[in-house]
Amino acid sequence: MPPLRVASSLTAQLNNLSLGPSRPTSFQHFEPSVLSHTFSTSRPTLNWLAPKGGESRKSRKGRPRVPTGGSTRGTTVVWGDYGLRMRDHDRRISAAQLKNGEDVIRKRLRGLKFRMYMRICANIGVYTSGNESRMGKGKGSFDHWASRVAVSKIIFELKGDVHEQIVRDAFRLAANKLPGLYEFVKKGDPPVMGITKVGNGVTMEDLKRPRKSLPPPNLEDTASRLPAST
Asked: How confident is the model at residue 19 (pLDDT cuts 50, 70, 90)?
């Protein structure tokens, strides 16, 4: 077999190649900047329609917490100027219903400067099972998040450069989307214990006072009022 013929130009290029050490490359030392990590003093925005860590165990249906002896906690406007308060009885409201109420308020007040506060959160899991399922097959699978709202509880608060009548109309539209009956309250209104408003001579001490004991029955008076038997 005859030897391979190599072109003269390729031979010249191979002779010019050098196998010596390559030229060292200078690497620039990278120093992280102080502002490379974002930092903020404001608290992170949490989702009020679902808990952050989920549930470790399935929640029971339960009932809203009602302290023994009554309580006025959560029945007054704290951060805003106006509020929406439930006034009929306690119930469980789903996260979808709360979201609809929030969206209606924001849509009605679109273009205005305001800030809205949510006084409750949907942190209770609701579990359902299929139709016509036999008993004893477990609690069921997760369906949605809900919130247990006690009676006279503030749900929404609003603060901003908005006229009172516009806020009333926005809260009216939101109440139509939520189950139950609601009322419009303002900052400074008296608290409510149960369904009784504290004020106008009614104090918390009077509401927490035990019932008055009735006098013992008088048997002689009772016997005198009864018809005589023959």
From this structure: low
Nearest to 182 by CA among 146, 157, 153: 153
CA distance 123 to 98: 12
pTM, whole model, 2 decimals? 0.69
Give the span between the Cα atoms of 227 and 50, in whole angstroms.
68
Domain-wise residue ranges, the chain: 82-128+139-193
Mapped to the 3 state alphabet, what secondary structure does 148-195 carry? Answer: EECCCCEEEEEEECCCHHHHHHHHHHHHHHCCCCEEEEECCCCCEECC
Assigned token pair, 217: 């029955």
Q: Tokens 């189950």 — which residue?
A: 179
Residue 158 has what pLDDT?
96
Going by the DSSP 8-state scheme, the letter that residue 55 receives in this structure is -
The Cα–Cα gap between 168 and 213 comes to 44
Residue 189 CB neighbours (<10 A): 17
Architecture of the 82-128+139-193 domain = Alpha-Beta Complex (3.90)
